[in-house]
Design goal:
CATH architecture of chain B: 3-Layer(aba) Sandwich
Order of helices and strands of chain B: EHEEHEEHEHHHEHEHEEHHEEH
Structural class of chain A: alpha/beta
Oligomer: heterodimer
Strand content of chain A: 15-25%
Number of strands of chain B: 12
Number of helices of chain B: 11
Shape of chain B: globular
Radius of gyration of chain A: 21 Å
Helix content of chain A: 25-40%
Shape of chain A: globular
Number of domains of chain B: 1
Order of helices and strands of chain A: EEEHEEHEHHHHEHEHEEHHEE
CATH topology of chain B: Rossmann fold
Strand order of the largest sheet of chain B: 6-7-8-3-9-10-12-11
Strand content of chain B: 15-25%
Number of helices of chain A: 10
CATH class of the largest domain in chain A: Alpha Beta
C-alpha cells in the first residue's frame, strides 16, 4: 500500500500567558491510499489540533515545534503558505463539524464551488459548474441545479454538510480530514452522511482521517483507529484488534463506558476523575492519575512499543479480559 | 396495575407566531402572509409508573424537549390534561399544587447555560429548599453538603461559582439542584449529551444509583439510542410531535414495529458492527410548520401505501398487542 500521509513526532504547542499547552505532543501515524483512519479522543485530547496541523492551520500562539508531516513523500510541516495553498482544497481537504465554517454565508453555493475548482485548475466556468452539479448529485442532493443557486442559510443542516462534503471531494483529493463531521447531526442524517463519505472514498481511493469522540461511528467506518489522550496517541492498531481486545487501560475504560445491549441495566464501567488540565499534566504517564493499573513504572513516560500488532504507550497492557460487546 | 405516578392525556402544545402591525397591514393589502403555527406536540398520551424509567427518543425538532417541558410544568399545554398521583394538576390549589410542582424537577442539557453564573454553588443548590421551607436556614448548610455528597461533589467546593467546575461536575450541580427539593420525578432532557464519553458513564451511573437509593421515576429524553437502551424500562419513539411507537425496551430493540423505529435502530452506529455499509433512509424531517398529510412519516417511509398519505394513524395496539401509530401494523391484526 502506498502511504499518502506520514506523520512522525509531531508536536504542536500553544504558548499562552498561563504556560505552554502541549496540545499535540509526539504523534506518529500513517494513512495509506483508500484507508479510513479513525482518530478518537475526548475534548482537549488534541485530535482536532492534529488535523489542523496537517493543513497548516495553526495560528499564533500555537505552532508546530517539532516533527515531520510527509504528504506523498514531501515534507509539509511548516511549509510556506504558498505551498500549502496549492494543497488545501486540492490535494488535502477538510470537513468541519460546523459546515458554516466551510461555507461563506453571503455567497451562493455555485459561486463557492466553482471558485474551489478554478483556484486550482485552468478550466472553463461551464466545466467547473458542471463538475459542481455532478458533485452535489453524488452526495445525494436532489435537484442539484436549483441547489447550486441557493445560499447556505436556505439549506438544512444535513444539506449544508453534504455541500461541504461535495466541495471537499471536488478536486478528487488524496486525503480528506473530517473533523467531527456528523456530531451535530441526527441519527438518520448522520447515517446518510457517513454513507456518502464511504461511497466517495471507495470510488476515488481517497484516504480519510475521521476525527471523532464517537467510538461506535469509528467502529462502523474505519480500517484503523488511533486513540488519543492528552496530546499523545496511546493506542493505535487495526479496528478489530483495538475494539475487541483493547490493551491500553484508557481504551479499555472508554469502551467499557459505552452503553451497549449486553450491559443493559448494569452499572457502566467508569473512568474515575476528569479529563486532565493540559497546563498541569503529571510527570510520567498522563493517564496515571485515572488509571486502575498504575504501577511504580508509570512515573516515567511510557514509550511507544509494538505489542500484539499495534503500537501502545503503556507499561501495563490489559490482556486479562476480552471486552464483551 | 397500580395507578401511574404521572399521566398525560391528549396533550398538545402549539406555538403561534402572531403577526405584528406591519404584518397585519401587509396582509390587508393582500400580501401572502399569515400567522404560523407549529404543532410541536400533537395529542400525546403517556403514563409513567412509579419507579419506572421511560425513555423518550426522537430526532431534533420532533418535539421531545417541548413534551418534557410540558410534563415538568415549564410550558403550559395548549390542550389536554396532566395527572400527578391520579389528580389533575390543573385543578390543584395551594399546598397540593406546590407539592405537585416540587415533585417534578427537570435536568437540562447544557450545564453551562442552566446554572446562574453569579451564584455560588451553595446558593444554587440551597435556595429552593430554603424558600420552600424544606429546611430551616440554620440547617441549610448541612443539607447542601448532604445533597452535594449524594451526587458525588466535594462539599468543600460549595463556595465556588459554576464556571469553576468542569462540564461533568456542572451537570452534577444541576442534578443536585433538582434533588434538593426532594422530587419524586425527574425529567432529564438530553442530560448527558454535552458530556465526554468517560464523563457520560459517570453521570449515567449516578442516575441509576439515585433511582435505587431514592426511588426516583424518570422521563429520560435523548436522541442517543444506546443510552436509552441502557437506562430505560420502556421507550416511546417520537416523530414530528407524535408518539409513533411505545413498548418495553426489550421489545423495541429486539423487535421494532414502526418503520421509523426500524430505520432509527438500523442506522445507529454500534461498536459491534465493523466496516458496515450504511444504507440510510431517504429524506429529512419535514418542517413542523407544514407537516405532511396523513401519517407524517409517509414521505420517507419505504413501505408507505396510498392510504398513509391521507389517514392519520392513531397510537393503538396492533399485532401482538404492541402499540404503534402505523396503519400497516394495525391492518395486520385483521
Amino acid at each position: 500500500m502506498t502511504e499518502v500521509l506520514e506523520v512522525s513526532g509531531l508536536k504542536t504547542h500553544f504558548f499562552t500567558h498561563a504556560g505552554v499547552v502541549k496540545a499535540v505532543d509526539g504523534v506518529d501515524f500513517t494513512v495509506s491510499k483508500g484507508e479510513v483512519m479513525g482518530l478518537v479522543g475526548e475534548s482537549g485530547s488534541g485530535k482536532s489540533i492534529t488535523g489542523f496541523s496537517i493543513l497548516g492551520l495553526i495560528e499564533p500562539p500555537g505552532r508546530i515545534v517539532d516533527g515531520s508531516i510527509r504528504f506523498n513523500g514531501d515534507e509539509i510541516a511548516n511549509a510556506p503558505e504558498e505551498r500549502l495553498k496549492t494543497l488545501r482544497g486540492n490535494r488535502i481537504s477538510m470537513i468541519f463539524q460546523d459546515p458554516m465554517m466551510t461555507l461563506n454565508p453571503v455567497l451562493r453555493v455555485d459561486t463557492q464551488m466553482i471558485e474551489a475548482i478554478l483556484a486550482h485548475e485552468n478550466v472553463s466556468r461551464q466545466t467547473a459548474w458542471e463538475r459542481s452539479r455532478d458533485a452535489l448529485g453524488l452526495v445525494g442532493i436532489p435537484s442539484p441545479e436549483e441547489r447550486l443557486q441557493a445560499y447556505p442559510h436556505q439549506l438544512s443542516g444535513g444539506m449544508r454538510q453534504r455541500v461541504a462534503i461535495a466541495t471537499a471531494f471536488l478536486n478528487q483529493p488524496d486525503l480528506i480530514i473530517a473533523d467531527e463531521p456528523t456530531t451535530a447531526l441526527d441519527v438518520t442524517i448522520q447515517a446518510q452522511i457517513i454513507h456518502e463519505a464511504q461511497k466517495l472514498t471507495k470510488r476515488t481511493g481517497t484516504a480519510m482521517i475521521w476525527i471523532t469522540h464517537d467510538l461506535a461511528v469509528v467502529a462502523g467506518l474505519a480500517d484503523r483507529i488511533s486513540v488519543m489522550y492528552a496530546g499523545r496517541i496511546v493506542e493505535q492498531g487495526g479496528i478489530d484488534d483495538v475494539i475487541d481486545r483493547p490493551l491500553h487501560p484508557y481504551t479499555v475504560g472508554l469502551l467499557g463506558s459505552v452503553p451497549t445491549a449486553n450491559r443493559r441495566g448494569q452499572r457502566l464501567f467508569q473512568i474515575e476523575g476528569m479529563t486532565p488540565n493540559m497546563l498541569a499534566l503529571p510527570e510520567g504517564c498522563a493517564f496515571g492519575p485515572r488509571c486502575q493499573a498504575l504501577t511504580a513504572a508509570c512515573s516515567k513516560r511510557p514509550p511507544i512499543k509494538d505489542v500484539d500488532g499495534r503500537s501502545l504507550r503503556c507499561f501495563n497492557p490489559q490482556r486479562t479480559k476480552e471486552t464483551t460487546l | 396495575m397500580t395507578e401511574p405516578l404521572v399521566e398525560i392525556r391528549g396533550v398538545s402544545k402549539r406555538f403561534t407566531k402572531r403577526l405584528d402591525v406591519a404584518g397585519k397591514i401587509a396582509q390587508r393589502l393582500g400580501a401572502n402572509i399569515r400567522e404560523e403555527t407549529v404543532h410541536a406536540v400533537d395529542n400525546v398520551n403517556l403514563s409513567i409508573q412509579k419507579g419506572e424509567v421511560l425513555g423518550l427518543v426522537g430526532e431534533s425538532g420532533c418535539g421531545k424537549s417541548t413534551l418534557g417541558r410540558v410534563v415538568a410544568g415549564i410550558h403550559p399545554a395548549s390542550d389536554g390534561q396532566m395527572f400527578y398521583g391520579g389528580k389533575d394538576v390543573a385543578t390543584l390549589n395551594g399546598t397540593d399544587k406546590r407539592a405537585a410542582t416540587l415533585a417534578i424537577q427537570m435536568i437540562f442539557q447544557d450545564p453551562f447555560a442552566s446554572l446562574n453564573p453569579r451564584m455560588r454553588v451553595e446558593d444554587i443548590i440551597g435556595e429552593a429548599p430554603r424558600m420552600h421551607g424544606i429546611v430551616s436556614k440554620a440547617e441549610s448548610a448541612e443539607y447542601v453538603d448532604d445533597v452535594m455528597r449524594k451526587v458525588g461533589l466535594d462539599p468543600s467546593l460549595k463556595r465556588r461559582y459554576a464556571h469553576q467546575f468542569s462540564g461533568g461536575q456542572r451537570q452534577r450541580i444541576g442534578i443536585a439542584r433538582a434533588l434538593a427539593v426532594k422530587p419524586k420525578f425527574l425529567v432529564c432532557d438530553e442530560a448527558i449529551a454535552a458530556l465526554d464519553v468517560s464523563i457520560q458513564a459517570q453521570v449515567i451511573n449516578l442516575f441509576m444509583d439515585l433511582r435505587e437509593e431514592l426511588g426516583l421515576t424518570y422521563l429520560f429524553i435523548s436522541h442517543d439510542l444506546s443510552v436509552v437502551e441502557h437506562i430505560a424500562d420502556r421507550v416511546a419513539i417520537m416523530y414530528l410531535g407524535r408518539i409513533v411507537e411505545s413498548a418495553s425496551t426489550e421489545e423495541i430493540f429486539s423487535d421494532p414495529r414502526h418503520p421509523y423505529t426500524k430505520a432509527l435502530l438500523a442506522e445507529a452506529p454500534r461498536l459491534d458492527q465493523r466496516r458496515r455499509d450504511f444504507a440510510p433512509i431517504e429524506g429529512e424531517i419535514p418542517s413542523p410548520l407544514d407537516p405532511p398529510s396523513g401519517c407524517t412519516f409517509h414521505p420517507r417511509c419505504p413501505v408507505a401505501t396510498a392510504e398513509c398519505r391521507t389517514t392519520v394513524p392513531e397510537l393503538k395496539a396492533g399485532r401482538g398487542g404492541r402499540e404503534t401509530a402505523c396503519l400497516l401494523e394495525h391492518a395486520e391484526t385483521v
